Structure formats: C-alpha cells, structure tokens
C-alpha cells in the first residue's frame, strides 16, 4: 500500500508527529514518506547508536535546503567523511577546552548581572528576549565580533524560522544572508591583521589542507558559534518555566549545589522540546531491529520521542532533576545535542558550553527575587522550535 506523505502532518503536529506514528507501530521502526522521499523513523538508545555508527548514514544529502539556508548555512553541518573530520577539528579546538568554556560562562554571568541591575524596579520583561540579548553579547565579545544592537534579533530569527515556510522563514533567510555578508567582511579584515587568540581570528587564519577557508564559509562557521550560543535562550526560558512550575527545585539551585544544577540542566534539556528529530541518509542497504532500510532512505532519529519514552525515562512527563543525580549518562541516552563522540561524529561540540552557560543562568535565576505577572506560558508543541508563549515575562522588584 502506498504511504501517505507526512509533510503536512509534521507541520500540524510538530514534536508529537513522530512519537504518534511510532506509538502506532509499538515503538518499532516505522516506514513513512516525507517531502516525497522514503524514510524510516527510529528512536531509543540503540537507534541513536545505529544512527551515529560510522559509515551508516551521510548528512550532506539529508538536510532539506530550507534548513541549510536558515539554521545551519553551508558549513560543518553539511559535510561528511574526511571533509567533516577536518572541519570538526576547528570546532573541537575552539569549543571543547575548559578555558573557552569558562570564559564564555563567566562573561554570560557578568552581562546577565548587569542586565538584571538595569531592569530592577521596571515593568515586565521577557526572560527569553533578555537572555537572548545577554547571550549574543557574550558570544560576540568572546569571539571578537562587534555588537551592533540587532545581532541577537538576527541570530534568534535564524533559529526561529528553520521549520516553517511562512514569514518566520523569510526573516531567517534574510538574517542569514545579511550576517554571512557582514561576517565575511570581518573575516577578510582579520586576515589583514596578525592572528590573535579570539575565535574570529582563529577561524579567519585556520588552514585546511594548507588553504584558508573562503571568507563566506569562514563566516558560516563563525555564525555556527554565535547562533547556537544565543539559542541557549530557548533553554533559559524553559528553565524559567520549570522554576515556576516546580518551585521546589529552587532551594538546591540557590544554595549553589553544582551536582543538582547539572542535574537540573540535563532535565531541562531532556524534558523540554528543542530539536524534534535528526536526519541522515542510508549510504548502503542497512538493517535495524529486523527492518530493512534500503540505500538512499532517509533515517529520522526521533529525539523528542526518545526523551519521553517511559522505557528509557521512567515517568517521562515528570520534571525530576533527581533522575540525573549519582548516575552516568550513556553516550546515546540523552541526545538533545546529538549522540556519540563529538570529536569524531556530528554530535554538538558546544554541549559543554551549553551546560556551563545554562548552569550559570539557572543558579542566578534561582537566587533572583522576581515574580511572574499573569500571562500564558503554555508551550505549543506544534510550533518548532517551541517556547513558552509569553517568553516567560518576569518583574524584578527594586
Ligand atoms: C541550545 C543549545 C544547543 C542545542 C539544543 C544544540 C543542538 C545541536 C544538535 C542537535 C546538533 C546536531 C547533531 C547531529 O547532527 O548529529 C548540533 C550540532 C552542532 N552544534 Fe549545537 N546545540 C546547542 C548549542 C551549541 C553551542 C552553544 C554551540 C557552539 C558554541 C554549538 C555548535 C554546534 C556545531 C558547530 C554543530 C555541528 C557539529 C557537526 O556537524 O559535527 N551548539 N547542535
């Protein structure tokens, strides 16, 4: 029987789309069609291991053009094999060393504190908007990109518009085009100067097989650092939502308990929706859980479904940071930023930065005296990427 194309169903259901389909197949791999192509959806730690197994899938033919033209750009996300390994080395060098992580986390904390001081005694502000501003300023200062007052809007637009074809998508395309052009100019300028330790300069002077990257590609990779750092604002708004719904989580955060803070951060990344699924294309005929996957088939790893599967996470709809205390997390278990080894595969090299920056923000939020005026903080799961509807409005008394 011919399968119905699921493109419209994804548009209508968002994060619930694949979990609903997989429920019908009792969690087994399910064949479907999307964008006119054959696909198989899989989920669970074994599925994540299969997805990241070297040689199973390729990425460059799997990413839809609207996602590349907004969210990712034509850089590391779209490379495979040796070209990916060479480019990934640049990100590992820039993002995975403790000094860089600490510098960005402490810059974020400092700018957040200054921002909060300026907001005391004022009217309601959106936690999402304020943290996006803080994070983009921190990322700009850290990397060496001059802030111009609208950088945060452009970076947020690139993330916000990748999964829709409406006005949000157009805004995302324009923002990317504008920023790639501007940052390519900065890369050219940095090349006329002596190298410094700043990421902008390091990307500008980075050699791959003895050659500099073309300036547009270097700009894409620079955006691949400042854009996702700003995207931590989605997680900060979710953290604000969690602190409001589960106020019992505040006390251990307020006391500066680092183990609990880490557990809280992991639970935010597990519980709340961000990446709905990841896609790759079968390089050859494959087989997973007794299901044949023909060469060329799209393989969709259901990230949101995996994080809400009771076989992996008991009582998955309970927000319980304690589930992460005193236990090791498997490489393929918690996968909001991909699975496997970030040095060799596609897993996010910014995961440690995300954890450090979000931890800094949640401890500050938990200590802060603020209240939520009446508002709608519902999270619409059909909107990708989702966020609390109001952006979490807060009032900070004098
Ligand atoms: C909101 C927080 C973040 C989320 C949810 C997130 C999520 C992801 C996901 C799902 C991937 C793709 C994994 C795959 O294709 O297998 C990824 C890749 C990537 N992320 Fe993140 N990320 C976040 C923060 C960051 C930060 C802070 C940085 C840099 C400072 C960063 C840089 C990257 C890069 C460069 C890649 C491409 C890796 C590759 O293709 O090898 N991300 N991220």
Features of this protein?
398 residues; five-stranded mixed β-sheet; 50% helix; binds protoporphyrin IX containing FE
Topology:
Blueprint: H1 7-13, H2 17-24, E1 30-34, E2 37-42, H3 45-52, E3 57-58, H4 65-72, H5 81-95, H6 98-119, E4 125-126, H7 127-143, H8 151-160, H9 167-191, H10 199-205, E5 207-208, E6 211-212, H11 215-245, H12 250-254, H13 258-271, E7 277-282, E8 286-288, E9 291-293, E10 298-302, H14 303-307, H15 351-367, E11 393-394
Parallel strand pairs: 2-10
Antiparallel strand pairs: 1-2, 3-7, 4-11, 5-6, 7-10, 8-9
Helix pairs in contact: 4-9, 6-7, 6-15, 7-8, 7-11, 8-9, 8-11, 9-10, 9-11, 10-11, 11-15, 13-15
Can you give me a brief rundown of this structure?
This protein has 398 residues and is α+β, with helices and mostly antiparallel strands. It has 15 helices and 11 strands. It has one domain: Cytochrome p450 (Orthogonal Bundle).
Task: Provide an overview of this structure.
The chain has 398 residues and is α+β, with helices and mostly antiparallel strands. It has one domain (7-388): Cytochrome P450 (Cytochrome p450). Helices cover 50% and strands 10% of the residues. The chain contains 15 helices and eleven strands. The chain has helices spanning 7-13, 17-24, 45-52, 65-72, 81-95, 98-119, 127-143, 151-160, 167-191, 199-205, 215-245, 250-254, 258-271, 303-307, 351-367; strands at residues 30-34, 37-42, 57-58, 125-126, 207-208, 211-212, 277-282, 286-288, 291-293, 298-302, 393-394. Helix 4 packs across helix 9. The chain is globular, with a radius of gyration of 21 Å. The relative contact order is 0.18. The protein binds protoporphyrin IX containing FE. Residues 76-77, 88, 91, 95, 224-225, 228-229, 231-232, 234-235, 274-275, 278, 336-338, 346-350, 353-354 line the site of protoporphyrin IX containing FE (HEM). Residues 76-77, 88, 91, 95, 224-225, 228-229, 231-232, 234-235, 274-275, 278, 336-338, 346-350, 353-354 line the site of protoporphyrin IX containing FE.
């Amino acid at each position: 029987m011919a399968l119905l194309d699921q493109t419209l169903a994804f548009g209508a259901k968002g994060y619930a789309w694949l979990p609903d389909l997989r429920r019908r197949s009792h969690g087994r791999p399910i064949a479907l069609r999307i964008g006119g192509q054959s696909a198989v959806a899989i989920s669970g730690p074994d599925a994540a291991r299969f997805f990241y197994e070297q040689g199973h899938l390729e990425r460059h033919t799997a990413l839809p053009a609207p996602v590349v033209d907004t969210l990712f750009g034509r850089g590391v996300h779209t490379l495979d094999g040796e070209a990916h390994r060479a480019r990934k080395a640049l990100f590992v060098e820039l993002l995975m060393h403790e000094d860089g992580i600490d510098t960005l986390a402490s810059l974020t904390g400092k700018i957040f504190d200054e921002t909060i001081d300026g907001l005391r005694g004022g009217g309601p502000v959106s936690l999402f908007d304020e943290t996006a501003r803080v994070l983009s300023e921190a990322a700009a200062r850290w990397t060496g990109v001059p802030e111009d007052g609208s950088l945060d809007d452009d970076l947020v637009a690139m993330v916000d518009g990748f999964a829709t074809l409406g006005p949000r998508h157009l805004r995302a395309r324009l923002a990317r085009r504008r920023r790639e052009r501007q940052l390519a100019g900065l890369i050219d300028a940095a090349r006329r100067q002596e190298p410094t330790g700043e990421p902008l300069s390091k990307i500008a002077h980075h050699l791959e097989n003895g050659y500099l990257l073309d300036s547009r590609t270097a700009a894409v990779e620079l955006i691949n650092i400042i854009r996702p750092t700003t995207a931590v604002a989605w997680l900060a708004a979710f953290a604000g939502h969690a602190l409001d719904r589960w106020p019992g989580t505040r006390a251990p955060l307020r006391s500066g308990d680092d183990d609990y803070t880490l557990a809280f951060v992991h639970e935010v990344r597990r519980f709340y929706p961000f990446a709905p699924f990841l896609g790759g294309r079968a390089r050859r005929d494959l087989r997973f859980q007794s299901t044949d996957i023909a060469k060329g088939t799209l393989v969709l790893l259901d990230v949101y479904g995996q994080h809400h599967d009771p076989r992996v996470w008991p009582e998955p709809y309970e927000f319980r940071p304690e589930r992460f205390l005193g236990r090791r997390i498997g490489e393929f278990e918690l996968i909001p930023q991909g699975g496997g080894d970030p040095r060799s595969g596609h897993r996010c090299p910014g995961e440690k930065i995300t954890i450090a920056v979000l931890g800094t923000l949640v401890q500050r939020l938990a200590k802060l005296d603020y209240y939520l005026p009446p508002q709608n903080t519902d999270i619409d799961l059909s909107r990708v990427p989702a966020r609390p509807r109001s952006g979490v409005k807060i009032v900070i008394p004098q």
